[in-house]
Amino acid sequence: MKLPFALARRFVAAETFEETIPKIKTINESGIKVTLDLLGENVKEKTTADDTVQIYKQLLNKIHEAGLKSTISIKLTMLGMDIDQEYCKKNLFDLLELAEKLNSFVRIDMEASDYTQQTIDIFKEAFEKYGKHVGIVIQAYLHRTKKDIPELAELGADIRLCKGAYKEPESVALQDMEDIRKAFKQYAKILLEKTDYPRIATHDDELINFVKNYTKTENISKDRFEFQMLYGLREETMEQLVKDGYNARIYVPYGTMWFPYFKRRLMERKENIFFVLKTMFKK
Ligand SMILES: Cc1cc2nc3c(=O)[nH]c(=O)nc-3n(C[C@H](O)[C@H](O)[C@H](O)COP(=O)(O)OP(=O)(O)OC[C@H]3O[C@@H](n4cnc5c(N)ncnc54)[C@H](O)[C@@H]3O)c2cc1C
Fold first, then answer.
1. How far, in Å, CA of 156 to CA of 197, rounded?
2. Average per-residue pLDDT in the chain?
3. Domain boundaries, the chain
4. CB within 6 Å of ligand 1 — which residues?
Protein backbone atom coordinates (compact mmCIF):
# COMPACT_ATOMS: atom_id res chain seq x y z
CA MET A 1 0.00 0.00 0.00
CA LYS A 2 1.39 3.41 -0.96
CA LEU A 3 0.95 5.99 1.79
CA PRO A 4 -0.15 9.46 0.67
CA PHE A 5 2.67 11.99 0.44
CA ALA A 6 0.54 14.48 2.42
CA LEU A 7 1.55 12.54 5.55
CA ALA A 8 5.23 13.30 5.08
CA ARG A 9 4.84 16.86 3.80
CA ARG A 10 6.00 18.39 7.06
CA PHE A 11 9.40 16.68 6.87
CA VAL A 12 9.88 16.09 3.14
CA ALA A 13 9.94 19.05 0.72
CA ALA A 14 8.30 17.39 -2.30
CA GLU A 15 8.36 14.25 -4.42
CA THR A 16 10.14 15.88 -7.39
CA PHE A 17 13.12 18.22 -7.76
CA GLU A 18 11.05 20.73 -9.76
CA GLU A 19 8.61 21.10 -6.86
CA THR A 20 11.53 21.36 -4.42
CA ILE A 21 13.23 24.31 -6.22
CA PRO A 22 10.84 27.04 -4.94
CA LYS A 23 11.26 25.72 -1.39
CA ILE A 24 15.04 25.93 -1.66
CA LYS A 25 14.72 29.46 -3.05
CA THR A 26 12.55 30.54 -0.11
CA ILE A 27 15.05 29.07 2.37
CA ASN A 28 17.96 30.76 0.57
CA GLU A 29 16.10 34.07 0.63
CA SER A 30 16.07 33.95 4.42
CA GLY A 31 19.88 33.71 4.41
CA ILE A 32 19.99 29.95 5.01
CA LYS A 33 21.87 27.50 2.82
CA VAL A 34 20.60 24.05 1.90
CA THR A 35 21.90 20.54 1.53
CA LEU A 36 19.61 18.58 -0.74
CA ASP A 37 18.95 14.88 -0.22
CA LEU A 38 17.28 12.66 -2.78
CA LEU A 39 15.59 10.15 -0.48
CA GLY A 40 16.31 6.45 -0.75
CA GLU A 41 18.62 3.87 0.78
CA ASN A 42 19.76 0.25 0.52
CA VAL A 43 19.71 -0.10 -3.24
CA LYS A 44 20.17 -3.76 -4.26
CA GLU A 45 20.38 -3.54 -8.07
CA LYS A 46 23.23 -2.05 -10.08
CA THR A 47 20.78 -0.54 -12.56
CA THR A 48 19.09 1.41 -9.73
CA ALA A 49 22.43 2.59 -8.33
CA ASP A 50 23.57 3.63 -11.83
CA ASP A 51 20.34 5.57 -12.31
CA THR A 52 20.82 7.21 -8.91
CA VAL A 53 24.30 8.44 -9.88
CA GLN A 54 22.84 9.97 -13.04
CA ILE A 55 20.07 11.67 -11.07
CA TYR A 56 22.59 13.07 -8.56
CA LYS A 57 24.68 14.41 -11.43
CA GLN A 58 21.63 16.09 -12.94
CA LEU A 59 20.91 17.52 -9.51
CA LEU A 60 24.39 19.03 -9.18
CA ASN A 61 24.03 20.54 -12.66
CA LYS A 62 20.53 21.87 -12.02
CA ILE A 63 21.52 23.38 -8.65
CA HIS A 64 24.42 25.09 -10.40
CA GLU A 65 22.29 26.34 -13.31
CA ALA A 66 19.54 27.63 -11.00
CA GLY A 67 22.13 29.41 -8.82
CA LEU A 68 20.78 27.77 -5.66
CA LYS A 69 22.86 27.95 -2.48
CA SER A 70 22.76 24.20 -2.04
CA THR A 71 25.10 21.25 -1.80
CA ILE A 72 23.92 17.62 -1.84
CA SER A 73 23.84 14.88 0.79
CA ILE A 74 24.00 11.27 -0.31
CA LYS A 75 23.87 7.80 1.26
CA LEU A 76 26.45 5.27 0.13
CA THR A 77 23.82 2.50 0.21
CA MET A 78 22.08 4.48 -2.55
CA LEU A 79 25.27 4.26 -4.60
CA GLY A 80 25.53 0.48 -4.24
CA MET A 81 27.40 -0.15 -0.96
CA ASP A 82 25.28 -3.29 -0.38
CA ILE A 83 26.26 -4.57 -3.83
CA ASP A 84 30.03 -4.06 -3.82
CA GLN A 85 32.31 -1.57 -2.03
CA GLU A 86 34.57 -0.90 -5.05
CA TYR A 87 31.56 -0.34 -7.29
CA CYS A 88 30.09 2.07 -4.73
CA LYS A 89 33.40 3.95 -4.51
CA LYS A 90 33.55 4.24 -8.29
CA ASN A 91 30.04 5.72 -8.30
CA LEU A 92 30.94 8.21 -5.58
CA PHE A 93 34.11 9.28 -7.39
CA ASP A 94 32.13 9.69 -10.60
CA LEU A 95 29.85 12.10 -8.75
CA LEU A 96 32.75 13.88 -7.08
CA GLU A 97 34.43 14.52 -10.44
CA LEU A 98 31.43 16.64 -11.36
CA ALA A 99 31.18 18.25 -7.91
CA GLU A 100 34.82 19.32 -8.26
CA LYS A 101 34.24 20.68 -11.74
CA LEU A 102 31.25 22.74 -10.55
CA ASN A 103 33.05 23.74 -7.34
CA SER A 104 30.26 22.07 -5.39
CA PHE A 105 30.21 19.69 -2.44
CA VAL A 106 28.91 16.22 -1.61
CA ARG A 107 28.20 15.22 2.00
CA ILE A 108 28.21 11.49 2.77
CA ASP A 109 25.45 10.88 5.32
CA MET A 110 26.17 8.28 7.99
CA GLU A 111 23.89 5.25 8.08
CA ALA A 112 23.46 2.39 10.58
CA SER A 113 26.59 1.09 12.39
CA ASP A 114 27.05 -1.90 10.04
CA TYR A 115 28.21 0.67 7.48
CA THR A 116 30.36 2.99 9.63
CA GLN A 117 33.76 1.47 8.85
CA GLN A 118 33.12 1.13 5.11
CA THR A 119 31.79 4.70 4.98
CA ILE A 120 34.85 6.09 6.76
CA ASP A 121 37.21 4.05 4.53
CA ILE A 122 35.56 5.30 1.34
CA PHE A 123 35.43 8.85 2.69
CA LYS A 124 39.16 8.87 3.47
CA GLU A 125 40.02 7.85 -0.09
CA ALA A 126 37.57 10.39 -1.50
CA PHE A 127 38.98 13.11 0.75
CA GLU A 128 42.51 12.39 -0.40
CA LYS A 129 41.43 12.81 -4.03
CA TYR A 130 38.70 15.48 -3.86
CA GLY A 131 39.59 17.40 -0.66
CA LYS A 132 37.17 20.23 0.11
CA HIS A 133 34.47 18.84 -2.23
CA VAL A 134 33.54 15.96 0.07
CA GLY A 135 32.52 15.65 3.71
CA ILE A 136 31.27 13.02 6.15
CA VAL A 137 28.88 12.70 9.09
CA ILE A 138 29.88 11.41 12.51
CA GLN A 139 27.36 10.24 15.11
CA ALA A 140 28.03 11.21 18.72
CA TYR A 141 26.17 8.19 20.15
CA LEU A 142 28.59 5.58 18.75
CA HIS A 143 31.27 4.32 21.17
CA ARG A 144 33.78 4.21 18.31
CA THR A 145 33.39 7.96 17.71
CA LYS A 146 35.88 8.53 20.59
CA LYS A 147 38.55 7.28 18.19
CA ASP A 148 37.07 8.42 14.86
CA ILE A 149 36.61 12.09 15.72
CA PRO A 150 40.24 12.89 16.66
CA GLU A 151 41.51 10.85 13.71
CA LEU A 152 39.27 12.55 11.14
CA ALA A 153 39.79 15.98 12.73
CA GLU A 154 43.55 15.47 12.43
CA LEU A 155 43.09 14.83 8.69
CA GLY A 156 41.20 18.14 8.43
CA ALA A 157 37.99 16.44 7.30
CA ASP A 158 34.78 18.40 6.85
CA ILE A 159 32.51 16.85 9.48
CA ARG A 160 28.82 17.15 10.27
CA LEU A 161 28.32 16.14 13.90
CA CYS A 162 24.91 14.71 14.87
CA LYS A 163 23.61 12.53 17.69
CA GLY A 164 22.75 9.52 15.48
CA ALA A 165 19.35 8.46 14.18
CA TYR A 166 19.42 4.64 14.00
CA LYS A 167 18.40 2.15 16.68
CA GLU A 168 21.72 0.68 17.85
CA PRO A 169 22.47 -1.87 20.59
CA GLU A 170 24.13 -0.89 23.88
CA SER A 171 27.36 -2.58 22.80
CA VAL A 172 27.62 -0.15 19.87
CA ALA A 173 26.08 3.12 21.03
CA LEU A 174 25.26 5.20 24.09
CA GLN A 175 21.57 4.90 25.01
CA ASP A 176 21.06 7.64 27.56
CA MET A 177 20.32 11.14 26.23
CA GLU A 178 22.46 12.84 28.87
CA ASP A 179 25.46 10.67 27.93
CA ILE A 180 24.87 11.40 24.24
CA ARG A 181 24.73 15.13 24.92
CA LYS A 182 27.94 14.95 26.97
CA ALA A 183 29.69 13.11 24.13
CA PHE A 184 28.31 15.55 21.54
CA LYS A 185 29.74 18.53 23.48
CA GLN A 186 33.13 16.91 23.81
CA TYR A 187 33.29 16.12 20.06
CA ALA A 188 32.01 19.56 19.10
CA LYS A 189 34.90 21.09 21.07
CA ILE A 190 37.44 18.91 19.23
CA LEU A 191 35.97 19.82 15.85
CA LEU A 192 35.85 23.53 16.64
CA GLU A 193 39.47 23.44 17.78
CA LYS A 194 40.90 21.23 15.06
CA THR A 195 38.86 21.63 11.90
CA ASP A 196 38.22 24.64 9.66
CA TYR A 197 34.45 24.56 9.47
CA PRO A 198 32.48 22.03 11.55
CA ARG A 199 28.76 21.54 10.97
CA ILE A 200 26.74 21.27 14.16
CA ALA A 201 23.57 19.32 13.30
CA THR A 202 21.01 19.36 16.09
CA HIS A 203 17.65 20.82 17.14
CA ASP A 204 18.59 20.53 20.80
CA ASP A 205 18.74 23.92 22.58
CA GLU A 206 21.14 22.62 25.19
CA LEU A 207 23.68 21.74 22.48
CA ILE A 208 23.04 24.88 20.42
CA ASN A 209 23.57 27.04 23.51
CA PHE A 210 26.66 25.07 24.45
CA VAL A 211 28.23 25.76 21.04
CA LYS A 212 27.24 29.43 21.16
CA ASN A 213 28.78 29.88 24.62
CA TYR A 214 31.87 27.80 23.96
CA THR A 215 32.72 29.64 20.73
CA LYS A 216 32.15 32.98 22.46
CA THR A 217 34.50 32.19 25.35
CA GLU A 218 37.11 30.69 23.06
CA ASN A 219 36.91 33.61 20.63
CA ILE A 220 35.94 31.36 17.73
CA SER A 221 34.22 33.59 15.23
CA LYS A 222 30.67 32.90 14.04
CA ASP A 223 31.83 32.34 10.45
CA ARG A 224 34.06 29.39 11.45
CA PHE A 225 31.18 26.88 11.76
CA GLU A 226 27.53 26.39 10.89
CA PHE A 227 24.37 25.07 12.50
CA GLN A 228 22.34 22.53 10.55
CA MET A 229 18.74 21.44 11.04
CA LEU A 230 16.27 19.25 9.20
CA TYR A 231 13.60 20.62 6.89
CA GLY A 232 10.33 21.37 8.68
CA LEU A 233 11.80 21.58 12.18
CA ARG A 234 12.52 24.67 14.28
CA GLU A 235 12.33 27.16 11.41
CA GLU A 236 12.06 30.14 13.77
CA THR A 237 15.13 29.05 15.69
CA MET A 238 17.07 28.83 12.43
CA GLU A 239 15.93 32.29 11.37
CA GLN A 240 16.93 33.69 14.77
CA LEU A 241 20.37 32.08 14.49
CA VAL A 242 20.87 33.83 11.15
CA LYS A 243 19.69 37.15 12.63
CA ASP A 244 22.26 36.65 15.40
CA GLY A 245 24.99 36.32 12.79
CA TYR A 246 25.45 32.52 12.69
CA ASN A 247 25.71 30.47 9.51
CA ALA A 248 22.89 28.00 9.00
CA ARG A 249 21.98 25.23 6.59
CA ILE A 250 18.82 23.17 6.23
CA TYR A 251 18.87 19.54 5.16
CA VAL A 252 16.09 19.31 2.58
CA PRO A 253 14.97 15.79 1.67
CA TYR A 254 12.81 15.15 -1.37
CA GLY A 255 11.74 12.21 -3.51
CA THR A 256 9.23 9.41 -3.65
CA MET A 257 11.16 7.01 -1.38
CA TRP A 258 10.42 9.02 1.75
CA PHE A 259 9.08 6.32 4.07
CA PRO A 260 12.27 5.23 5.99
CA TYR A 261 13.31 8.87 6.56
CA PHE A 262 9.78 9.78 7.63
CA LYS A 263 9.68 6.82 10.04
CA ARG A 264 13.00 7.88 11.69
CA ARG A 265 11.59 11.39 12.29
CA LEU A 266 8.48 9.90 13.94
CA MET A 267 10.50 7.53 16.10
CA GLU A 268 12.86 10.14 17.50
CA ARG A 269 10.29 12.60 18.82
CA LYS A 270 6.72 11.98 19.92
CA GLU A 271 5.71 15.57 19.03
CA ASN A 272 6.44 14.70 15.39
CA ILE A 273 3.75 12.01 15.55
CA PHE A 274 1.25 14.62 16.74
CA PHE A 275 2.13 16.88 13.79
CA VAL A 276 1.42 14.02 11.39
CA LEU A 277 -1.84 13.07 13.11
CA LYS A 278 -2.92 16.71 12.87
CA THR A 279 -2.17 16.64 9.12
CA MET A 280 -4.18 13.42 8.73
CA PHE A 281 -7.23 14.76 10.44
CA LYS A 282 -7.13 18.26 9.00
CA LYS A 283 -9.93 18.68 6.49
C1 LIG B 1 21.19 18.45 9.33
C2 LIG B 1 21.09 17.10 9.96
C3 LIG B 1 21.67 16.02 9.33
C4 LIG B 1 21.61 14.74 9.91
N5 LIG B 1 22.28 13.70 9.32
C6 LIG B 1 22.29 12.50 9.94
C7 LIG B 1 23.07 11.41 9.43
O8 LIG B 1 23.74 11.50 8.40
N9 LIG B 1 23.03 10.24 10.11
C10 LIG B 1 22.31 10.08 11.27
O11 LIG B 1 22.35 9.00 11.87
N12 LIG B 1 21.56 11.10 11.76
C13 LIG B 1 21.53 12.29 11.13
N14 LIG B 1 20.78 13.30 11.66
C15 LIG B 1 19.79 13.02 12.73
C16 LIG B 1 20.39 13.13 14.12
O17 LIG B 1 21.32 12.09 14.31
C18 LIG B 1 19.29 13.04 15.19
O19 LIG B 1 18.62 11.82 15.08
C20 LIG B 1 18.26 14.14 15.13
O21 LIG B 1 18.84 15.37 14.76
C22 LIG B 1 17.57 14.30 16.51
O23 LIG B 1 18.46 14.74 17.49
P24 LIG B 1 18.48 16.27 17.97
O25 LIG B 1 19.79 16.53 18.60
O26 LIG B 1 18.22 17.14 16.80
O27 LIG B 1 17.29 16.47 18.96
P28 LIG B 1 16.40 15.41 19.77
O29 LIG B 1 17.31 14.47 20.50
O30 LIG B 1 15.35 14.86 18.89
O31 LIG B 1 15.72 16.36 20.80
C32 LIG B 1 16.43 16.90 21.94
C33 LIG B 1 15.73 18.13 22.46
O34 LIG B 1 15.82 19.17 21.48
C35 LIG B 1 14.63 19.92 21.47
N36 LIG B 1 13.96 19.75 20.16
C37 LIG B 1 14.21 18.78 19.23
N38 LIG B 1 13.43 18.93 18.16
C39 LIG B 1 12.66 20.00 18.41
C40 LIG B 1 11.63 20.66 17.70
N41 LIG B 1 11.25 20.26 16.48
N42 LIG B 1 11.06 21.75 18.26
C43 LIG B 1 11.43 22.19 19.48
N44 LIG B 1 12.40 21.59 20.21
C45 LIG B 1 12.99 20.52 19.70
C46 LIG B 1 13.77 19.39 22.59
O47 LIG B 1 14.07 20.09 23.76
C48 LIG B 1 14.24 17.95 22.71
O49 LIG B 1 13.99 17.37 23.94
C50 LIG B 1 20.89 14.58 11.12
C51 LIG B 1 20.32 15.68 11.76
C52 LIG B 1 20.41 16.92 11.21
C53 LIG B 1 19.82 18.08 11.94
1. 9
2. 93
3. 5-281
4. 109-110, 137, 139, 160, 162-166, 201-205, 228-230, 233-234, 251, 268-269
Identify the band that residue 1 occupies on the pLDDT scale cut at 50, 70 and 90. Answer: low
* pLDDT bucket at 40, cuts 50 / 70 / 90: confident
Compute the 3-state secondary structure of the chain and give helix, strand, coil in percent, each to the nearest 5: 55, 15, 30
Residue 250 β-bridge partners: 34, 229
- The separation between the first and the last C-alpha atoms of the chain, rounded to the nearest angstrom, is 22
The dihedral built from the CA positions of residue 182, 185, 188 and 194, taken in this order, carries a sign that is: negative
Q: Is the pLDDT of residue 280 over 60?
A: no
Residue 135: which residues within 8 A CB-CB, separation 6 or more? 105, 106, 107, 108, 157, 158, 159, 160, 199
Q: Among residues 271, 263, 267, 182, which one has the least CA distance to residue 234? A: 271
pLDDT at res. 283: 41
How far from 267 is each of 49, 179, 264, 270, CA to CA, in Å? Answer: 28, 19, 5, 7
Fold (CATH) for 5-281: TIM Barrel (3.20.20)
Catalytic residue list contains 176: no
